[in-house]
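Entry 12.
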Amino acid sequence: MKRVKTIWKVFLAIIIIIMGMLILIPVSAKNSKPLRCLIFYSNVKGVNSMIAQAAQKMETELDGDDDIWLSVYELGEESYSSFETKADIAIELDADVLILSGSAIERETDFQKLEENQIKLILVDGDMKESGRCAYVGTDNQKAGQQGADLLEKRFEDCAIGILSSSVNQENLNKSREERREGFGKRIEMLYSDFGENMKIDTELQCSLNSEKAVESIKDMIQTHPEINVLFCLDSASGIAAARAVKDMEKKEEIYIICFDMTTQVEKEIEEGGIDAVLVQNVDECAKGCIKILRELYQNPDSVKDRQDMFECNIITVD
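Predicted 3D structure (tokens):
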């Protein structure tokens, strides 16, 4: 009788082992399938976009990776502006993850296609929570505004500030400018009220889309507020216009110019001393953040939900 019980225990143990193996097989099979990821970008003339730079760094880092297969595509402006085109390509290529610039997506976009085909969306350089994206990787714009204020605090005892922005009406850019302005304003107010720093915002101006009109309006502002010794520009277009205005007025030694985002023209102004400092997005951190999320998704497709990985800007100065 004892022998029968022993045989039954051995048989039961074998059954349990087999069942355990059957449970593990799907997990092993899922992990053995590479995670297929697509990135689309389109370089506007004179602008080496954040997503294009990050994609190049990710390609280098993931070259030969068995777990994550990354494909990068540069599209023409018309194709790039169409979310439908990018979604259709991702579906056709059986992608698991799509990485896009949030600044290139319209609010009314229908993201249902991605959800229906179980394609995860990661946004960089502009967030849009309503997209259903699993993660946003990009700059903390409020913190970037604070960084600008801290830079001024280190360089000036007295600071009379004019804030500039362009009239470019793009939803994510508008949001970025608002957040930069908010972070900058709060920091300046704190430095003034809590620490007794003689720093104040004198005036603000939204510049025309017409570059000549923008330059003239900045000149008028400076003439109306001759005490201004800093122009804090919330985007690259207003920074370039400010550099031209200050140069025309021969006030370069008197007025310090800060702007956001590196373009070909901003880079030229930095080299020639027209712009004193530029806050640029940290491409290395963006690439690392995206790769980290891709590795988490490879291990568990449901592990990343409504995630925000944000980081500070890099600051490039003339000196």
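Annotation: The radius of gyration is 26 Å. The first strand starts at residue 35 and ends at 41.
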